[in-house]
Write a structure and sequence with these properties.
Strand content of chain B: 5-15%
Order of helices and strands of chain A: EEHEE
Number of domains of chain B: 2
Radius of gyration of chain B: 24 Å
Number of domains of chain A: 1
Largest sheet of chain B: 4 strands, antiparallel
Structural class of chain B: alpha+beta
Number of helices of chain A: 1
Strand content of chain A: 25-35%
Strand order of the largest sheet of chain B: 1-5-7-6
Number of strands of chain A: 4
Oligomer: heterodimer
Shape of chain A: globular
Helix content of chain B: 55-70%
Order of helices and strands of chain B: HHHHHEEEEHEHHEEHH
C-alpha cells in the first residue's frame, strides 16, 4: 500500500459541477445510490473508496 | 590422520548443530517449509566443513588450502541473493507485504549465519586440535551459545512502549487516537472497522527509537508481523482492511490499525513487541550528538 503509485480509477459524484477530467465519472441521484455505486465499483476494480466530502467519491488503487 | 578426522568431525558437528539452533530461532522471520530447512541445513553443513578443515590444512601444512575460504565467502553471498530472490518473488502475490527492507534483513541474516557457523566450526576444531575432544566440546557449547546471543537482534518491545488505542472516524478519516491514517469512503466499511478493528499506539522510548519507527520499512515489518500472528480480514477487493502504521509527525508516536481474524488485543501487543528491529532501520542519532557538536565547533 505504501510507496507505490496510486491511480484514480473512477469518480462517483452527486454534483455535476464539481467534477471533470480524465477518470471515468459516474453520477448518482442520491446518497444511497452514491454509496451503492461506489461499493460496486470498489469490488469490480479492487480499489479503495475515498470520500472527498463534497458529494464526491474517488476510487483509488493503492 | 585419524586425529585430524576427529578434529574435522568435531568442527563439522559443532557448526551444523549451531546452524540447526539458529534455524529454529528464526521462525518468525521465515514461515518454515521442509525444503528450505533442508537446503539451509546442508549449506550450514558445508560451511561447517569449510571452517573445520582449515585447522588441519594449516597443521599439515598446506597453507594454500586456506584460500578456499575466500571461495566460501562468494558462495555465501550467493545464499543472500537466493533468499532475496525467493522472498521478492513471493512478495508479489502476498496480500500483506513484508517490504523490501524486511526481505533484505532476512537475506543478510541468512548470509551472516553461515559465517557464524564457519567460525564456530573453526574455533571448535582448533580447540580439539590443541586441547583434545573434551576441550573441543566445551568450546563448542560456548561458541554456540555466544553465536545465538550475537544473532538475536533487538525487538520493538525493547525500544518502544505499546499500548491499546481507540479507533474512531474524523469525518471519513480513520483515526488511531489522534493519528489520522487513511480516508475511508464507504459508510458500511467505517462501521465494520469500528466494530471489528483493533489499534495500538507505539510510543518510542527515546530519540533512537523514534528514528527507527520513522523508517517506513520498519513500520511495514510491524504491520506484517501483526497480520501474520493475528490473521487479517483483508482480501484483494477489500483494500480498506490493509493493516497500516502511521506516525504522529509532532510526537513521533505511531498508530497501528488492523482488521484481525483473532480479535485479541494482548496478542496484538505481543506481536508488535516481538517484531525485530530491522538492520536497515536501526540508527542511533543520539550517539551522533558528540560528533556533530565537534563538527559544529569546527564550522563556527
Amino acid at each position: 500500500m505504501q510507496g507505490e503509485i496510486s491511480n484514480i480509477l473512477a469518480v462517483v459524484s452527486l454534483n455535476q459541477e464539481v467534477v471533470s477530467g480524465g477518470a471515468p465519472i459516474f453520477f448518482a441521484r442520491n446518497e444511497g445510490e452514491l454509496e451503492k455505486v461506489a461499493g460496486y465499483l470498489s469490488k469490480i476494480l479492487d480499489a479503495m473508496v475515498h470520500d472527498l466530502g463534497n458529494g464526491c467519491y474517488i476510487l483509488v488503487r493503492h | 590422520m585419524p586425529e585430524y578426522l576427529i578434529v574435522i568431525a568435531a568442527g563439522i558437528l559443532a557448526g551444523t548443530v549451531s546452524r540447526l539452533i539458529l534455524l529454529r530461532s528464526d521462525y518468525r522471520q521465515y514461515p518454515g517449509y521442509p525444503h528450505g530447512y533442508l537446503s539451509h541445513l546442508l549449506l550450514g553443513f558445508i560451511a561447517a566443513a569449510l571452517g573445520a578443515v582449515a585447522v588441519p590444512a594449516v597443521m599439515v601444512p598446506e597453507y594454500t588450502a586456506v584460500t578456499f575460504l575466500a571461495l566460501a565467502a562468494t558462495q555465501f553471498r550467493e545464499i543472500r541473493d537466493m533468499e532475496r530472490r525467493t522472498l521478492e518473488s513471493l512478495e508479489r502475490t502476498e496480500l500483506i507485504k513484508r517490504g523490501l527492507d524486511y526481505i533484505e534483513g532476512i537475506a543478510r541474516t541468512f548470509e551472516a549465519r553461515n559465517y557464524l557457523v564457519m567460525a564456530t566450526a573453526f574455533i571448535t576444531s582448533l580447540a580439539t586440535q590443541f586441547g583434545g575432544l573434551p576441550a573441543g566440546g566445551v568450546v563448542a557449547v560456548i561458541t554456540i551459545l555466544l553465536s545465538r546471543y550475537l544473532m538475536s537482534g533487538d525487538i520493538i518491545g525493547n525500544i518502544c512502549d505499546v499500548a491499546p488505542a481507540r479507533l474512531s472516524f474524523d469525518g471519513p478519516t480513520l483515526m488511531v487516537d489522534e493519528i489520522g491514517l487513511i480516508n475511508v469512503g464507504l459508510k458500511n466499511m467505517r462501521e465494520e472497522i469500528l466494530k471489528n478493528g483493533l489499534a495500538v499506539k507505539i510510543k518510542p522510548k527515546d530519540g533512537n527509537a523514534r528514528s527507527i519507527i520513522h523508517d517506513m520499512g520498519q513500520r511495514k515489518a510491524i504491520a506484517f508481523t501483526a497480520a501474520v500472528i493475528l490473521g487479517t480480514k483483508k482480501d484483494v477487493d477489500i483494500p480498506e482492511y490493509t493493516p497500516l502504521v502511521r506516525k504522529n509527525s509532532d510526537t513521533g508516536e505511531a498508530g497501528l490499525y488492523i482488521m484481525p481474524v483473532e480479535r485479541d488485543m494482548e496478542q496484538l501487543i505481543a506481536a508488535v513487541k516481538l517484531t525485530p528491529v530491522l538492520e536497515s532501520a536501526s540508527s542511533k542519532p543520539l550517539l551522533a550528538g558528540s560528533s556533530t557538536r565537534k563538527a559544529k565547533e569546527k564550522v563556527e
